Amino acid sequence: MARKSASSKKALKADDTPVLRRSSRIKSISTVSVPIEGLECENGKLTDIPVLASELPTSKTVTKKSHHKDLHEQSSSQESVTDAPDTPQTEQCTVQISKRKRRHAESPTYVIPDIETKKTTFKGRLGYACINTVLRNKKPAREAIFCSRTCRIDTLKKNGMDWLKDIGRKNVQDLLKMIQWNEDNNIRFMRMSSEMFPFASHGVYGYSLDYCAPLLSEVGKLADKYGHRLTVHPGQFTQLGSPRLEVIESSIRELVYHCEMLDLMGLGVDSVMIIHGGGTYGDKSSALGRIKKTIKEDLPINVRNRLVLENDELCYSAEDLLPLCEELDIPLVFDYHHDLLNPSSIPPVDIIKRANAIWAYRGIRPKQHLSEPRPGAVTLMERRAHADRCESLPADLPDDMDLMIEAKDKEQAVLQLYRMYNLHPVNRGNDIPVLPLAKAECSVASLRPPNSSPTKETQGRKSAKRPRMNNSNKGRKKPISSDEETEDEGSSTA
């Protein structure tokens, strides 16, 4: 304390006014009174000490003997002294402490550019995957809203299962907030994060979701109230056609976990689980046979009832999966971007017609996926990465189905298509709808401007730039991603 007092006197002007340092970070100074025992005050008086209140106790008094006899005198109206006759070397003084106030961040102003309007007969729902960028990027960071908090196994071992389950509970609580935001902005289709409950499908640390059943039920009730469709997309390590039994077992556990989450929410048949065919392992025909066997013989019936397959850009085209889907009555999600990179000999309109027949037979509303390659992409690996937004809807898009927009800008890509095709009004901060050609130069609640100079590079797993493997990374298994786009899902790892 003596060292602080000495440095504090250097920070006083001749008129005892505290010198304001780091003025760019401090808005103003206020004073608080903190009682301190243990200071021998000359004539019972202390000077103002300009230190942070956080550096001194607020709920306790500190007893310490001091030999300061030369403290600067100040008006007694700013101090109070309580004598302690039984302990003459210890006095209780009230010291005026200078307290810094941080400047409040002002609401940002965004300039939303004009967009060209287009026409469509589409009347279905547009959705986005896993993250809401507006909610995820809220400041301060402690106010961010997202559903992909996770941790490492070492942290789990240290903090225990109850701590881990609290992470899942917090993710579900934020999911309720995301659904409400979606409703307020006319978005009624969303893919949930697969990381809602970290390690729930783990072979050693897995656990039941029953502990969170009441909260999950709230999610389902809110989604039903607003007519929202919620789906999931287990990660790329879900391989039902693997030649390794342990991989298939792990994949089944992952599907069981997702199905349990959907069932506890009380969601209907439209809440499906989408997976890819996986690897071909050098023999596509044999791999397809193993996929067929796993679905028919090994999957629990409730898991199979929610299962949907999707064509991918490397291994299985829509034409490869369609016969299997028709044989097993497993719906097929047609992905336009993947078909562009790994095309079928059958035209998309015919594939969609055959796929929709399966959806109709099962009584499930059809869904498809839309994304575009990043600008400037040339090679296959570059073209796999998804662009920030989509510039148009497909010409052969059916009128009445649900379309998942798998773009990096998430809900912003959906809102841009709303404006482009005049599908729904987009709300500003004062609840005035933004017309398609209206320029919004104001503080906007929902809209964010697009990246003015996007590149072909992405920081996700589809980037052509691969990090160099060092000794610390060797042998480390990559975590399962919530969906193929979730390299930017913004998960928070403890």
Could you characterize the architecture of this molecule?
The chain has helices at 2-10, 133-136, 153-159, 161-184, 213-226, 245-265, 284-298, 301-306, 318-328, 336-341, 348-362, 380-384, 411-421; strands at 26-37, 81-82, 92-102, 110-112, 125-129, 149-150, 189-191, 229-231, 273-276, 307-310, 332-335, 367-370, 402-405, 440-442, 492-493. The strands form 4 sheets. An 8-stranded parallel β-sheet has the order 8-7-5-13-12-11-10-9. Strands 1-3-2 form a 3-stranded antiparallel β-sheet, with no helix packed on it. It has 494 residues and is of the alpha/beta class. The two termini are 36 Å apart. The chain contains 13 helices and 15 strands. 30% of the residues lie in helices and 13% in strands. Helix 5 (213-226) links the parallel strand 7 (189-191) and strand 8. The radius of gyration is 30 Å and the shape is globular.
